Amino acid sequence: MTHLSLEAQIALDQAHIWHPYSAMHSDLPVFHVDSASGVYLTLSDGKRLIDGMSSWWCAIHGYNHPHLNNALEQQLQRMAHVMFGGLTHEPAIRLVEKLVALTPRELQSVFISDSGSVAVEVALKMAIQYWNARGEPGKQRFATLRNGYHGDTMGAMSVCDPLNGMHSLFNSVLSRQFHVERPQCRFGEACQDSDLQALEQLLQANHAQIAALILEPVVQGAGGMYFYAPEYLARARELCDRYRVLLIADEIATGFGRSGKLFACEHAAISPDIMCVGKALTGGYMSLAATLATAEISNTIDQGNPGVFMHGPTFMANPLACAVAVASIEQLIESDWQQHVDRIELQMKQLLSPCAELPQVAEVRCLGAIGVIEMKQAVDMKSIMRQFVDAGIWVRPFGKLVYLMPPYIISARELELLCNSLIDTVARQPG
Length: 431
What we know:
The chain is of the alpha/beta class. The chain contains 13 helices and 16 strands. It has helices at residues 6-16, 54-57, 66-76, 90-102, 116-133, 154-158, 193-206, 230-242, 295-303, 319-334, 337-352, 381-390, 412-427, and strands spanning 33-37, 40-43, 48-51, 107-113, 141-145, 178-180, 210-215, 219-220, 226-227, 246-250, 274-277, 289-294, 361-367, 370-375, 393-394, 401-404. The strands form 4 sheets. A 7-stranded mixed β-sheet has the order 4-12-11-10-7-5-6, sandwiched between helices. A 4-stranded mixed β-sheet has the order 1-2-3-15. It has a 3-stranded antiparallel β-sheet with strand order 13-14-16, covered by helices on one side. The mean pLDDT is 96.
């Protein structure tokens, strides 16, 4: 096999590879990674970076983890893939067993898919098919919160914020959904009747059309890194029950400990009708997601027309991905993840809080293993990315938000270096 030089690889990348949310011929820097281990990314020039992003929030155990590596190697000797239509296998069965055990007890039926966006598409289809089977085919629209983000595919885009989100270009071709303002009650604050007024008015007036309310529980991720009061979620659950609307919890970003609870719904002690998980499901090793539903939903769909759920990805329940997901969940549960996340939260609060005094900074907030510095104006991505790499850290902001979601295995010393380098860089940004 002929190996390309680093220069040739970079040239091919620049000529032919379209990176996410980038122009084809962007002037934004792209850094070539040679390897990764623990919390470190090693670039091809030998520079080591502390990863503050967990590779978009999924590599919770860090990189090159022996337990996860072994799970993949062992499964590879048995089979890399087999279709899931009419066949099953041990990795999928073990994964589903663990998901059912970990999530709210009402969630008994699991549909395994390829990615978070697909898990959301599946959830939306489940809700529509459920109401159709109940003899209410008019319930085909969705309620959702402004500043929410649920993915990049067509159905998922329709329940993202149509004005403040990333998908306004596609509004004319997306299904029209109902959007209400995000909760004004912040995490740690009391929730007032006025905070629920808009949602209640929407559901009261339109429940005959609405199949489900979909939201990110407690933490809005890519739509703003915003933390709202768990009481809002609890009362939203009550409103959904009152107006016969399903509740879909998008736990793709928050699941598996990121918010300080195993699942963010636990902050409000509620159980959704449908839950989406992904990202950290495999510890960042492979793309995999799942949509869990109550037995009431799956049984009703079974008894309706056409009597089957109408979705089936080619790579559904890929054995390699399922095997490493099982290993990731085992690693999480057998570790003292709660202590690790609590330590990360406390340390980030202590280290990042002084940033609030900087003239460039609007607000600093932390919850679980999530630390957010909200700037007063959008950062210059081209400049700040190079500054972060020069400082020995990997942080990728968006808009006004400079944030951290480090791997849970990060040591106190590594987190201190990460936060201090982040602060030094933020302090050099224009005011």
